[in-house]
Amino acid sequence: MESSSNYSCCDSPTIEFDQNCTATFSINNTLIADSSDKDFVAPCKKIEAGRMTLDRCVDVKAILVCTEGFRVTEEKRIDLHGQPCSGSNSVAAGNQGSVGLLLLVLGIAGCL
């Protein structure tokens, strides 16, 4: 089964997956993480307990293979698209910094 899904890139980008399945993650056909042996390379920072943490926001292809004993019960292919955080928080913080700087400059110039 193939599907597409989004994940949030706010804070530390994290992709959650069914930890009862074996999961492999790739970017442009290059393997970056494998849950079965906890092996990973950048941009993956960590893979454990149904979570993969990335060092940046990237689109990832996941393949999950779920089994019961030696029988494959389900195989899922998921295109995961990183969604950057909305700029509202960063813009507000930036504006506060600009206002503070403007007040500092005006205070030094003797305008206040």
Task: Describe this structure in a few short sentences.
This protein is an alpha+beta fold. The chain has one helix at residues 88-108; strands at 2-8, 14-16, 21-27, 30-34, 39-40, 44-48, 51-54, 60-68, 71-83.
Overview of the molecule:
The longest helix has 21 residues, at 88-108. The N and C termini lie far apart (66 Å). The radius of gyration is 21 Å and the shape is globular. The model is unreliable at 88-112 (pLDDT under 50). The chain has one helix spanning 88-108, and strands spanning 2-8, 14-16, 21-27, 30-34, 39-40, 44-48, 51-54, 60-68, 71-83. It has a 6-stranded mixed beta sheet with strand order 1-9-8-3-4-5, with no helix packed on it. The protein has a 3-stranded antiparallel beta sheet with strand order 2-7-6, with no helix packed on it. The chain has 112 residues and is of the alpha+beta class. Strand 3 (21-27) and strand 4 (30-34) form a beta hairpin.
Task: Jot down its keywords.
112 residues; alpha+beta; 6-stranded mixed beta sheet; 3-stranded antiparallel beta sheet; 1 helix; 9 strands; 19% helix; disordered C terminus
What is the CA–CA distance across the termini? Answer: 66 Å
Task: Briefly note the structural class of the backbone.
Answer: alpha+beta
Strand content: over 45%
Indicate the low-confidence ranges by residue numbers: 88-112
Q: How much is the radius of gyration in Å?
A: 21 Å
Mean of residue pLDDT values: 81
Shape: globular
- Mind summarizing the main beta sheet? 6 strands, mixed
Total strand segments: 9
Number of helices: 1
Helix content: 10-25%
